[in-house]
Design goal:
Blueprint: H1 2-16, E1 19-25, H2 35-46, E2 69-75, E3 80-87, E4 93-96, H3 105-108, E5 122-132, E6 135-143, E7 146-147, E8 161-167, E9 180-183, H4 197-203, E10 212-217, E11 228-232, E12 240-252, E13 255-259, E14 261-264, E15 267-268, E16 274-278, E17 285-287, H5 289-298, E18 302-303, E19 309-311, E20 322-326, E21 329-333, H6 335-338, E22 339-342, E23 350-353, E24 355-357, E25 367-370, H7 372-375, E26 378-383, E27 388-394
Parallel strand pairs: 3-9, 4-8, 16-25, 17-24
Antiparallel strand pairs: 1-2, 1-11, 2-3, 2-7, 4-9, 5-6, 6-8, 10-11, 10-26, 12-13, 12-27, 13-16, 14-15, 14-20, 17-25, 18-19, 19-23, 20-21, 22-23, 26-27
Length: about 400
């Protein structure tokens, strides 16, 4: 009896060591999936010094038109509330700034951080800039407390640096449902070498015995209210089934791992193991153009425009399974997983392939980008302490 009680206490302690961040998702229409703009954004993200084609960014929300999942954080004392995109493909935190100019429409339409209203803020005055396809995000660096939980347990100290944005590029962020971006990649790719907030959380073993975070993304189109959940400092077995397959990092920049193979009906669509990046900041699943074209042909997808491929919606249940091998384990996407069924507002849905060709040259490529098409099907664990990424079959309901 006593041993059972000890086990119970251990389980309670493990649960207490996890903080849960609820995620909100955006349900996209076809018009919001601008494949050309998404491609330009990803090239800028993953090709050093890439000069994007600005014509791709001339409509609506561009740089982050492919972002779907975001959640709450607080900054300052007393806490100021923000909704941020949790992006494993970048490494900086930024939110709009209270002193942004009136002409910055994106800033005026979102929650703004005010250093003067926080007793723990230090305004460094250091300039900050991130270049996007449609322009640059400019601002200054402030230091303050950043929290992932309203109970003040999972917080940094007041020395945490982040960017307070005084200029946001063009119309890119005007229509965004989130206020800013919280990068969760490695510090090596951080602008201005600013450590990301998770570094401080991971360093505190008293509250974070497992230095990792995990994503369970809801892909149920009928469940708009529940976008999923991010857990910090532990995993949640209710969100996945079976064992977690681990793959070590190739390098500590992005969450970059080796993808062993991609197969359909026994035919391989990769030339041996290839680098892949697990990126919560993109909805799509991308790979080298030649390989993706072969996959599109195999699934019967028809090229439309700007890299988009469409399938007949009634064919989705009959589409072949696509098998990804990671960590020595097979992960299978069914047609309903890799096809985006979108509303066009006029009754009949449109079905787009969730695959997109994207050529990243050496030395950063060639590579595959495993975005939400993949992460939404498989519970994804980003293990900072052991420098690895893990996947398991996601539970359908949690």
């Amino acid at each position: 009896m006593a041993s059972r009680f000890v086990v119970f206490l251990a389980l309670c302690a493990a649960v207490a060591a996890i903080t849960r961040v609820p995620l909100t998702k955006v349900t996209h229409t076809r018009e919001q999936y601008k494949f050309k703009a998404i491609g330009e954004h990803l090239k800028k993200k993953y090709i050093p010094d890439y000069i994007p084609n600005n014509d791709a960014f001339n409509e609506g929300l561009s740089d982050y038109s492919n972002a779907q999942y975001y959640g709450p954080i607080t900054i300052g004392t007393p806490p100021q509330n923000f909704q941020v995109l949790f992006d494993t493909g970048s490494s900086n935190l930024w939110v709009p700034c209270a002193n942004c100019p009136f002409g910055d429409i994106a800033c005026q339409l979102h929650t703004k951080y005010n250093c003067q209203k926080s007793s723990t803020c230090t305004a460094t005055g250091a300039p900050f800039e991130i270049q996007y396809g449609s322009g640059s995000m400019k601002g200054v660096v402030d230091n303050d407390v950043v929290c992932f939980s309203h109970d003040k347990t999972w917080c940094t100290d007041k020395t945490q640096g982040f960017a307070c944005a005084t200029a946001e590029p063009g119309l890119a962020f005007v229509g965004a449902k989130f206020d800013g971006v919280l990068g969760m990649g490695w510090d090596r790719i951080s602008v201005n070498n600013i450590s990301q907030p998770m570094d401080q959380i991971f360093a505190n073993s008293a509250i974070c015995p497992q230095p990792l975070f995990a994503f369970w993304l809801s892909r149920d189109a009928n469940d708009v209210a529940n976008g999923g959940e991010m857990t910090l400092c532990g995993t949640d077995s209710a969100h996945y089934q079976g064992d977690i397959a681990w793959e070590p990092l190739v390098s500590e920049d992005y969450w970059r791992i080796k993808l062993s193979s991609v197969k359909i009906d026994g035919t391989e669509y990769t030339n041996g193991p290839v680098d892949s990046i697990v990126d919560t900041g993109t909805s799509l699943l991308t790979g080298p153009s030649d390989e993706i074209k072969k996959i599109q042909k195999k699934i019967g997808a028809i090229p439309i425009i700007n890299g988009e491929y469409e399938v007949i919606c009634s064919h989705v249940p009959k589409l072949p399974n696509i098998t990804f091998n990671l960590g020595g384990q097979d992960f299978v996407l069914q047609g309903k997983d890799y096809i985006l069924q979108l509303s066009n507002g006029q009754g009949a849905p449109t079905c787009l392939s969730g695959f997109m060709g994207l050529d990243i040259p050496a030395p950063n490529g060639p590579l595959w980008i495993l975005g939400d098409v993949f992460i939404g099907r498989f519970y994804s664990v980003f293990d900072n302490g052991n420098k690895r990424v893990g996947f398991a079959n996601a539970a359908k309901k949690a």
